[in-house]
Design a protein that fits this description.
Blueprint lengths: L1 H24 L11 H6 L5 E5 L2 E4 H19 L5 H27 L6 H10 L3 H4 L13 H8 L5 H25 L6 H12 L1 E9 L13 H15 L1 E2 L2 E10 L4 H19 L4 H8 L11 E6 L5 H9 L5 E7 L2 E13 L2 E11 L5 H21 L1 H8 L4 E2 L8 E2 L3 E2 L1 H7 L11 E3 L3 E11 L2 E2 L2 H31 L5 H8 L4 E3 L3 E2 L11 H8 L10 E2 L4 E10 L3 H33 L3 E3 L7
Antiparallel strand pairs: 1-2, 1-20, 3-16, 3-17, 3-19, 4-15, 5-10, 5-14, 6-9, 7-8, 8-9, 11-12, 13-14, 18-19
Length: about 600
């Protein structure tokens, strides 16, 4: 009976795992395709949010799944998703649904199913991970116990639980088979593993001469018009294509504290000051009321700090007060502060203060938020009925206009707003939008006012940059010429230092570095590092064209990799490399599957 109780207690968690976590990462199960009961009875086709190769997700199902994930986020994080977090979640929800449909379609096309024998095998011999970690099946040491598990399997009272596990396996195993099929051809050879280990662990130390292009003057006037035109034509497609862009006008109903909100905080600050002056412990009040996450739990204790450590209004008040004095409320960019100075000292010729503080943030009240939101909704209604510009005139609203922006998700001034940008790129000019909330800014209603079609940048607009690029290449070639001339004079390894001294050239020496590592003063330059590791001891390289200029390199020391260490780690290294290659192979396979699919995203019709 105790086991039955534990299993019932864990049922909710397992169901959540099945319906949320697995769904989010691999499948949306019943949410894929079809219409809801209301739609079926009415004969009305549901509005489609996503279509994948003709298979559709309706608005009702999409929002159901979306709300489920948001609720799961609330439970896990004890807060509402907002800002960039919410944007990321929206993309994860969309991608998980698309991925599920694509792979499910593939399993059907390939006729990949699950037999009853496979179900039995996994239940009895290869239980899913959520079973292996279920405390209901753990022994006294906390480890999974097959004895307890087998007893639960034989108990008829657990039938509902095992039906649920069976359904999970029916849904998940086809996906696992596809995954296994994709990664089955991936392997790691011993030589491949060894070479990778050498690249990351073998170290070299070198001396080098750098032939700096900047030491060569080259006037832009020496670059001919025909050279510029030739470069433009050869690089036009890759470098000078200006993607389609949009420009909007928008009304921002700013969400900021009202005078009433500020007065409420100052009144509360005055109440706290009265309590402190009447003997209430400052630290206790700070622990209860301070909104500073760093010091609040410590009774507002800030320790000793210099004047430069804090924002100016805070420092001015703290350093002007006497020891034991309480001052405030002091307004800074963070809110209102009540400050208690506890000590002062001079250390390293710097004056320091030890203080506690109570931070009271000035934020918009619920009433203020509702008022701003109502104003935004009212303007949106007028704009929808009479047009954006007429609504602006009627309501005397301030309007801003953006510069042109591309489809990446960033809107000048308004920031990263992927959903909003996606909507803008799917509507026609002249129609007022719905109300869109932007965290830390407020409510926005906008109108698309201009479309700039994809085009090539004009030669006149990029000519200056092309001349700069060509000048840099000419300077590099002059540096390369110097490098080649110097190299031709070297007859033996000792000439490297001797001739450099004669020509007053600076030889630099590196610390030990790995082939795939960072080289101080050089950065990550594949030509530089690759050449260095290909040299014999004391050998001087030929001219090396790097990212910054030309080099001559002399190998002065090389540390062989530790064969004993490699042998000891070999199996773990091989497993890690195999997992990395399998992830890459699966990702590439899926991206190719997605690229060749007919996917239509209509989210812009429903979600801002």
């Amino acid at each position: 009976m105790a086991l039955m109780g534990k299993m019932r207690e864990n049922m909710t968690g397992i169901l959540l795992f099945l319906l949320v976590m697995f769904v989010l990462s691999m499948t949306v199960g019943g949410l894929v395709g079809g219409a809801d009961i209301t739609s079926l009875l009415s004969g009305k086709k549901p509005d489609t949010v996503v279509s994948v190769n003709g298979e559709q997700i309706s608005y009702e199902y999409y929002t159901q799944f979306r709300q489920q994930q948001i609720e799961n986020y609330r439970q896990q994080n004890k807060k509402e998703p907002s800002g960039y977090e919410l944007q990321q979640m929206e993309e994860q929800i969309y991608e998980s649904i698309v991925r599920d449909i694509l792979i499910k379609q593939l399993t059907q096309k390939m006729n990949i199913g699950v037999t009853s024998n496979e179900i039995k095998y996994h239940i009895f011999n290869n239980p899913p991970q959520f079973i292996l970690t279920n405390p209901s099946f753990a022994d006294s040491t906390g480890n999974f116990s097959y004895q307890i598990y087998e007893a639960a399997l034989g108990d008829e009272r657990n039938a509902r639980y095992w039906d649920m596990v069976q359904n999970y396996l029916v849904e998940s195993l086809p996906f696992q088979k596809i995954h296994q099929e994709v990664i089955s051809s991936v392997f790691v050879t011993d030589d491949e593993l060894k070479q990778d280990y050498i690249k990351r662990n073998q170290k070299a130390k070198i001396k080098y001469l750098f032939f700096d292009p900047n030491k060569h003057e080259f006037a832009d006037s020496l670059i001919t018009k025909s050279q510029v035109e030739k470069y433009y034509k050869e690089n036009k497609e890759e470098n000078y294509k200006d993607e389609e862009k949009r420009r909007i006008q928008y009304a921002l109903f700013e969400l900021k504290p009202s005078a009433s909100d500020t007065n409420e905080i100052t009144d509360f600050a005055a109440t706290l000051l009265d309590s402190i002056n009447n003997g209430v412990d400052f630290a206790s009040l700070a622990e209860t009321y301070s909104e500073d996450p760093g010091s609040g739990s410590k009774g507002g204790d800030l320790g000793f700090f210099t004047r430069e450590t804090m924002v100016k209004p805070f420092s001015d008040a703290a350093f002007s007060a006497n020891i034991g004095e309480v001052v405030g409320p002091v307004l800074s960019q963070h809110g209102f502060h009540i400050i208690k100075v506890e000590d002062k000292k001079t250390e390293d010729d710097k004056e320091k203060v030890k203080a506690r503080h109570i931070l009271l943030k000035v934020e918009s009240s619920r009433k203020t938020v509702e008022t701003v939101r109502d104003d935004a909704n009212y303007f949106a209604e007028i704009a929808s009925e009479e047009g954006f510009n007429q609504a602006v005139i009627n309501e005397k609203i301030k309007v801003d206009t953006t510069n042109f922006f591309a489809q990446g998700g960033f809107i000048p001034v308004l920031g990263l707003q992927k959903r909003m940008v996606e909507t803008i790129f799917n509507v026609k000019p002249g129609k007022a939008s719905r109300v869109t909330f932007i965290e830390d800014k407020g409510y926005v209603i906008y109108e698309l006012i201009e479309i700039q079609k994809e085009r090539f940048k004009l030669l006149a607009d990029v000519e200056s940059g092309i001349r700069s690029t060509l000048r840099r290449e000419e300077q590099k070639e002059l540096a390369g010429k110097d490098c080649r001339a110097f190299r031709e004079r070297i007859q033996n390894f000792e000439d490297f230092e001797t001739l450099a001294g004669q020509d007053s050239l600076e030889i630099k020496e590196t610390e030990f570095f790995a082939m795939t590592g960072y080289v101080a003063g050089i950065g990550r330059d594949a030509n530089f590092s690759g050449t260095a590791f290909g040299l014999a001891l004391d050998e001087v390289s030929g001219p090396v064209k790097g990212t910054r200029g030309y080099y001559l390199i002399k190998l002065i020391e090389k540390q062989d990799f530790d064969l004993t260490s490699f042998t000891a780690q070999k199996e773990n290294l091989k497993r890690t490399m195999l997992e990395q290659k399998q992830r890459t192979a699966y990702t590439n396979w899926y991206n190719n599957l997605k690229e060749n699919a007919n996917i239509k995203d209509y989210r812009y019709k429903f979600f801002n």
